[in-house]
Amino acid sequence: MGRFFLRLTWGIARFCWRHLFGVLLVILLVAAALIGYQVWTLGPLMAGPLLPYLGTCLGLIVVVIVLWLLRRSLARLLVKGRLSLHKRAAKEAVRQGVGQGEVAARAAVKGAQGAVSTAVGQLQQGLDRLLGIKPGGAPAQAAPRLCPSCKRLLRPEATFCDRCGARLPTFCQQCGQEVRPKDKTCRHCGARLR
After folding, report:
1. 174: helix, coil or strand?
2. Class of residue 35 by CB neighbours under 10 A (exposed 0-12, middle 13-18, buried 19+)
3. To 10 degrees, what angle do helices 20-42 and 2-18 make?
4. How far apart are CA 48 and CA 89, in angstroms?
5. pTM
6. DSSP of 113-173, one letter per residue?
7. What is the pLDDT of residues 7-22, one digit of tens each?
8. Contact 48, 5 (CB under 8 A)
């Protein structure tokens, strides 16, 4: 139960702070109404001591209304000034940045095109190497490589069978002919072996 009243009090305090002028105006209007009712029931002669309080409440009501109107008009001017300042700054930035932005965008597009073409070339080379395709475009071997001992399918770059460990024949990357494992150059085309 105490938590409920604490939340209620906190909510009322937040509302009063956010709507300070409205709350003050309501309080002063209620006070002026109560004092006015007392003056009306007691009569002007008996309620003489209450008249200064009534005048003070009415004066404070006028002051709160004037302050509230000033605050609203000042807030509107500030927002309008800020917006117009932002609009002017944005227009100027757009005017100045369009030319520079186009140049930067063109340079970025050219750089991206170069990077993409390089990546595609490297991907193509890696794929060719993986599939065993010579730089001329023809595959180095027509049939997939199989181990001569166990007949297992082999990777193109393998020098030994993964299953049985048999030494595999190697081929020249240039002409595709079989070469001996210890040769440094191809005996068919003279190309340097890896």
Report:
1. coil
2. buried
3. 90
4. 62
5. 0.36
6. HHHHHHHHHHHHHHHHHHHTB-TTSSBS-SSPPB-TTT--B--TT-SB-TTT-PBPPEE-T
7. 888 888 888 777 887 8
8. no
